[in-house]
Write a structure and sequence with these properties.
- The protein has 9 helices and 5 strands; from the N terminus they run αααααααββαβαββ.
- With about 220 residues, it is of the alpha+beta class.
- The protein folds into 2 domains: about 90 residues, no CATH class; about 130 residues, Cytidine Deaminase, domain 2.
- α2 crosses α3.
Length: about 220
């Protein structure tokens, strides 16, 4: 059934206006974002296909990957990518203080679902409040090249008092490698020279997470 054949009161946009976004299904929410379907496929049908693997899987797809789906041009792909990123930022922003490795992990929990390594920096003020979260590097399936100058660039620009760095292991195993430990030591030394303390380096995997500075964050509690 095409959307124009659906009674007005049953269409996702009208239901949202009347009852609020919370009553819509995942597919209906997606349909509101996409707006229209394709010839022979309604926007709801397109949305149901897209959302089948779940929001986490959908959020991993780049705009270029989304545009390979029939019915998703540049406008829809970028709108969808932007909406998913807003969701991630809202989720990260709901907890504004980092006082434990678990706090840091919650802020970057989406890293668990990434197929490539990403390296992020959580910028903190003197009270441990989050000033921002920056993705400074993206790598391949098993490694990412990290340069201390890039890690601290945003910290200097935002006048951060301290930082927590985080990256993921797409393999799923959060155990730190020799390179991870060496990088932590380099970042710690650079931070001491710059007066910006490295509080922790957390590694996220599907099976859990590892903290390389276990206990250091609790000093903020």
């Amino acid at each position: 059934m095409a959307m124009y054949d659906t009674p007005a009161e049953e269409r996702p946009r009208e239901r949202l206006l009347r009852y609020g976004a919370q009553v819509l299904s995942d597919a209906e929410l997606l349909a509101v974002l996409l707006g229209t379907g394709t010839q022979g496929q309604s926007v709801l049908e397109l949305s149901r296909e897209l959302i089948k693997p779940g929001w986490a899987q959908l959020s991993r797809r780049t705009p270029a990957e989304l545009m390979q789906v029939r019915g998703l041009g540049a406008a829809k792909a970028t709108t969808l990518s932007a909406a998913l990123e807003v969701g991630h930022r809202v989720e990260r922003g709901t907890m504004v203080r980092v006082a434990s490795p678990q706090d840091a992990v919650r802020l970057v929990s989406d890293l668990r679902d990434r197929d490539q390594e990403e390296f992020r920096v959580i910028l903190l003020n003197t009270k441990g409040l989050v000033l921002g979260i920056e993705t400074v590097f993206r790598g391949g399936l098993d490694r990412v090249e990290v340069f201390p100058r890039e890690v601290f660039r945003s910290a200097v620009a935002r006048s951060a008092a301290s930082i927590v760095v985080a990256h993921n292991h797409p393999s799923g195993d959060p155990a730190p490698s020799r390179q991870d430990r060496a990088l932590t030591r380099r970042l710690e030394a650079c931070g001491e020279l710059m007066g910006i303390e490295l509080l922790d380096h957390v590694i996220v995997g599907r099976s859990g997470h590892t903290s390389l500075h276990l206990g250091k964050l609790t000093e903020l509690s």
